[in-house]
Structure formats: C-alpha cells, structure tokens
Amino acid sequence: MWAPDIYEGSPTLVTAFLSIAPKISLFANMSRVFLVGSYGGTLQQIFFFCSIASMILGALAAMAQTKVKRPLAHSSIGHVGYIRTGFSCGTIKEIQSLLIGLFLYASMTIDAFAIVIALRQTRVKYIADLGTLAKTNPISAITFSITMFSYAGIPPLAGFCSKFYLFFAALGCGAYFLAPVRVVTSIIGHWAAGRLP
C-alpha cells in the first residue's frame, strides 16, 4: 500500500527503478528456487492467493486515482499478480511465459516512465491535465496512449501477448478459478488505463 506514495513522492527516475528492479530480482530469485527444487501444494495455494489478491487490489485501487504516477503504481501491483501466476503451477511452460511477461512488463514500464519524465517538464501532474497533451505534444500523447493500452492488454499490443501467455499457461495447469479473476481485473484495468491517455 506504500507504493503509490513512494511513486508520487520520489523523483521519476528513482520511481522507474523501483518499479522494475525489485520485480526482476524477485522473480529471478524465485526462478532460481524453482530450478533448484520443487514446492508443494501449500506454496502453490499461497501463490494463487497472492496472485488473486494482487490483481484485485491493483485494479480496484487504480480506479480512484487522480494523479498520473499513482495509477502506474497500482498497475505495477496488478502486474505482479499477473506475473506471479507464472509460478502458480511450477511448470516450464509457466516459467517461460513468466519470463516473456517480465520482459514485456519491463519494456512497457521503461516506456511509461520515460514519457512521465517528459511530461513532468510540461507540468502535467494530474490525469485531467492529459486532455491538452494531444494538442501540445501529439507524439507524446500517442506514445503514452499506446503504452497505457499495452498495460491494459489491448489485443494487438505487447501487454496482450504477455497476459495471453500467462493466462493460458495457468489454464494449462488447471488453475481455472484464476480465469474469471484475470478477466474481470483486466476489464477494470482497461478502464483505469483508458483514463490516462
């Protein structure tokens, strides 16, 4: 719950680093644990629960935000839930989809924060301020829109591919109860990300 405050209060470069580096190191260490040994049903249930909780929290909390950086923080929380499903069953296919998802998430986050850095120079701080961005800087507006739609998982974009691989990897191992949660949180994420551009 501290992430949105840290995202808002920190310089944008530090925020971008805090958005990407801990997740990559966490999942690298988890992959290392996965490769060294296996885990039982209890740990699998913990992964399922944490995935669901993270997806729901990230999607619902992003709905009430008015500043530009705060929805990115909640999107980060939700994406951890999506990526964490890669560890849910412990198969190689899920780990592969996890790595694809992690790479695409890092790419989208770098792009989003590069645009936020550019927007800070124009004093865009609130979501309502983005309405004039198309008139003042159309290239940044288009790029930011594409990035946010990719975060949301709109089909032809990279975020969709990430969620697609992770979704079907989880279904492949029988985690059918994650499907409705992922669909609902993706729909909420579409609405929250659609407010930004």
TrEMBL record:
GO terms for cellular component: membrane; plastid. The gene is ND2. Pfam families: Proton_antipo_M. InterPro entries: ND/Mrp_TM. It is a multi-pass membrane protein. It is found in: Membrane. Its main location: membrane. This is NADH-ubiquinone oxidoreductase chain 2.
